[in-house]
Write a structure and sequence with these properties.
With 469 residues, the chain is α/β, with parallel strands linked by helices. The chain is 37% helix and 18% strand. The strands form two sheets. Strands 4-3-2-5-1-6-7-8-9-10-11 form an eleven-stranded mixed sheet, sandwiched between helices. Strands 12-13-17-14-15-16 form a six-stranded mixed sheet, sandwiched between helices. Strand 3 and strand 4 form a beta hairpin. Helix 2 runs parallel beside helix 5, helix 7 packs parallel to helix 8 and helix 11 runs parallel beside helix 12. The longest helix is centred in the N-terminal third of the chain and has 24 residues. The radius of gyration is 22 Å and the shape is globular. The two termini are 35 Å apart.
Length: 469
């Protein structure tokens, strides 16, 4: 069993949460570095070596894919942990063991250990005349999660990449399986201005000796697929390619372009056999992999989740190296929660949240909306908040075309676009603004009694969900 190799002061849950939200005191370098996490893990005796790691990168779909992967592996008899970001309500939600968020004591202990590791690393650097590392929030949380998972004696951890891939904290581990779900324009100021540049950053998670799955969002355009397949060839990895049998089953998940056939590579596919026709209605699909066909998988999810379910199936099968037990697979898929993803918080009057936060994820969300509410004028009021470092105009233009009425607000995030600016953008896009609220709580109060769909940022989904927690 893994043991922390040094003593450390134990923080309370509130102290640990506060530290996780503001940990810049560790050092003063300007840019996060992968070496920071590597050295912190080395200081801890590599807790991540106590279990297998599956790393999942991508612009969209990676959180849901991670959740389905973890649920499926748990159903196949593995003690599985899950690391995702961001949280909807509490930070400890980012760390799950066997399908449940870790308790407050485990979270506080993990943060305490990670903080002491950072202090020790920086003390040694300072003594050697080197500049201390700045341990970022994500660095601290990632190291803490790996400690928590090691002490829980898990078999395998599914780690969702936070940002990009090449320099992400999760890349400091040694995954046995990697996945890239898809590529989209997001975090351009960090990852690059083109899909191809972003693809290169995300594909960097693929390394020699690993197994790999490439999701439907990597298929188009061909230039993006070329970048990722080139990386696979460079490091000698043969990926499993997941592709829809009908391109319409991946609406919003892929860019326009021809889906090419690669006869020299193993492939998997899926087909939706039943689309939901109402909110909360069933989705059914068949998944075909190199090892088996899994028929009549079902979930009370929107159609866009079919790609993520199929990807989770492929990842679990590749990791286990065998076909999955079908009855356990069915149960795992149908029972897997996806918080903040087309999530119904209240049935009457309707309150639905979705964490779509860039044009590609908004497209997928809107495809699901059209399927259950075809008439634009009959759709609920849209409640929207957007972060200013996103493609705000792209998000607004898509949503304004699909909703007749919008109420705008801003979240507590320092990156939030102010409600008045967002209101002006919706007005210019031809969507009637029926309310402008400086806080999410004020918006929910002002819209009390109305049917409402809230989307535009992960932080909005989280704050709305927290009001119902």
């Amino acid at each position: 069993m893994y043991q922390v190799p040094f003593e450390f002061p134990l923080l309370t849950y509130d102290e640990a949460s506060a530290m996780a939200h503001d940990c810049g005191f560790f050092g003063n370098t300007d840019d996060p570095l992968l070496e920071t996490v590597v050295e912190m893990l080395n200081e801890l005796g590599r807790p991540d070596s106590a279990f297998d790691v599956i790393q999942i990168a991508g612009t969209n779909g990676k959180t849901s894919t991670s959740r389905f992967t973890a649920a499926i592996l748990s159903g196949q008899g593995k003690k599985c942990a899950l690391y995702t970001s961001p949280e909807l309500v509490e930070m400890r939600e980012r760390m799950e063991v066997s399908g449940k968020a870790v308790d407050r004591e485990a979270f506080a202990r993990g943060i305490s250990v990670a903080a002491e590791s950072g202090r020790r690393v920086n003390a040694r650097r300072s003594a050697a005349g080197q500049k201390p590392y700045r341990v970022t929030e994500f660095d601290l949380l990632t190291v803490a999660a790996l400690v928590v998972f090691a002490e829980a004696e898990i078999d395998v951890a599914v780690l969702e990449v936070g940002l990009g891939g090449r320099w992400d904290a999760t890349t400091a581990t040694h995954p046995v399986v990697t996945c890239v779900t898809g590529i989209g324009l997001d975090h351009c100021h960090i990852l690059g201005d083109t899909l191809e540049e972003i693809a290169g950053e995300k594909a960097a998670v693929i390394k020699a000796g690993q197994r790999c799955v490439l999701g439907v969002g990597t298929a188009t355009p061909g230039s993006v697929e070329d970048v990722i397949l080139s990386r696979c060839r460079e490091v000698g990895v043969e990926p499993v390619l997941l592709r829809p049998e009908d391109a319409s089953d991946a609406a919003g998940e892929m860019f326009p372009g021809e889906v090419r056939v690669h006869a020299d590579l193993p492939s998997a596919s899926y087909v939706i056999t039943k689309h939901p026709v109402r909110l909360g209605g069933p989705l059914e699909l068949d998944v075909h992999t190199p090892r088996a066909t899994y028929a009549e998988l079902a979930a009370l999810k929107p159609s866009y989740q079919a790609a993520n379910i199929a990807c989770g199936v492929c990842i679990a099968e590749v990791y286990l190296g065998r076909a999955l037990e079908p009855d356990a697979l069915f149960t795992s898929v149908v029972q897997c929660p996806t918080p903040g993803r087309f999530q119904l918080l209240r049935a009457d009057p309707l309150l639905l949240i979705d964490a779509c936060h860039n044009p590609q994820s908004v497209e997928a969300f809107l495809a699901a909306v059209r399927a259950v509410a075809p008439a634009k004028d009959a759709r609920p009021t849209l409640l929207c908040a957007v972060l200013k470092d996103k493609d705000v105009r792209g998000i607004v233009d898509l949503l304004a075309a699909e909703f007749a009425h919008v109420a705008v607000t801003q979240t507590s995030s320092p990156r939030a676009l102010c409600a008045h600016e967002l209101s002006e953008l919706f007005d210019a896009a031809g969507c009637e603004v029926v309310g402008e609220y400086p806080t999410v709580a004020g918006a929910l109060s002002g819209l009390c009694g109305e049917s409402c769909v809230a989307c535009g940022s992960i932080t909005l989904a989280g704050e709305v969900a927290a009001s119902f927690a």
